[in-house]
Amino acid sequence: MFVIVMNGTNIVQDGLNNKLVYKFPNSVVFKDKYIAVSSISMYYSWFNITAVYLNNTFTYTWNGTTNQTYTVTIPDGLWDISAINNFIQYTCLQNGTYWTVSGTYYYPFELIINANRYAVQLNTYQIPTTTPTNGTVPPAGWPTVVFNSVVTFPSAFNAIVGYTAGFASANNVGGGITFATPSASINYASVNSVNTISYLSNLAPQVQPNSSLLFSLSNINNPYTQPSSIIYSLNSNVGVGELISEKPPNFMWNKLIDGTYNELRLTFLSPTLQAITINDPNMTILLTIRDKNESFLGNQ
Question: Which of the 8 DSSP states describes residue 207?
Fold first, then answer.
């Protein structure tokens, strides 16, 4: 039995930090050898929202008649719903689509967590056409009709917040809005006495679609997995930016294909088997190799 250590020095320098190559000092012959992940130390540093994933934009409207549309473009990063909502407010400030009353800022919509329903709640607020008492005129000007912003969640971003692709909220022009009975494809919605409309996501929000990493190792042929090179799954069970430190209590042995080797290549994949960018290259991965008949940790 012997141990292979992979760390930042083994990373392929392509900017993704998701591929590590261990080169043997000399070519080695493997016959009836098994390999397992024995220790992992790395930081939770992979993003959930990026331009590459096409899940970083959605839109809202400001004018109820012309439907002037603004796009919210979220920078690549690790975002939770609260942080997304803060960025919504920032975007509204940049676009001038806000107003104030007695020094309090008001925005046309918000996203919040509804923990009791395991849902993301969208609230859209009725936007007046005249300045309230002690209020200020929005930099973008008042809309021409009283309405609620139409918020649209396109494909990919919709999964983050748990809404169906292409969801669009109601503009409520003219009031008297009614909603269909909620179903798997129709969101629960309600409107209160001041025409604030609230929606609940009807799908489980996938705020972090890459909640785990799959370890793909070269020279493995497991006929029961696809791809056949998957040997381990690492869950991000710590806070963003914190150290993931994992030592499996029992090793999951995988047979190496018999042959002559000069290197082993380890790749991190998303749960959907896509390439994933690891932002922090500070990591140490230990792989243990043993003979077929060698007993280790009670495993044969």
Answer: S
Query: Does residue 155 contact residue 165 with C-beta atoms inside 8 Å?
Result: yes
**CB-based burial of residue 56 (10 Å sphere; 0-12 exposed, 13-18 middle, 19+ buried)?**
buried
Peptide bond preceding 227: is omega within 30 degrees of 0, i.e. cis?
A: yes
> Structure pTM?
0.86
Domains and CATH numbers, the chain: 2-46+210-291 (2.60.120.1100), 57-200 (no CATH)
Of all residues in the chain, the percent with pLDDT exceeding 70 is 97
* 8 Å CB contact between 21 and 229: no
Q: Give 89-146 pLDDT, tens digit per residue.
A: 999 999 999 999 999 999 999 999 999 999 999 999 999 899 999 999 999 999 989 9
Q: How many CB atoms lie within 10 A of CB 160?
A: 27
For residues 224 and 247, what is the distance between their CA atoms, to the nearest angstrom? 24
3-state secondary structure of 153: strand
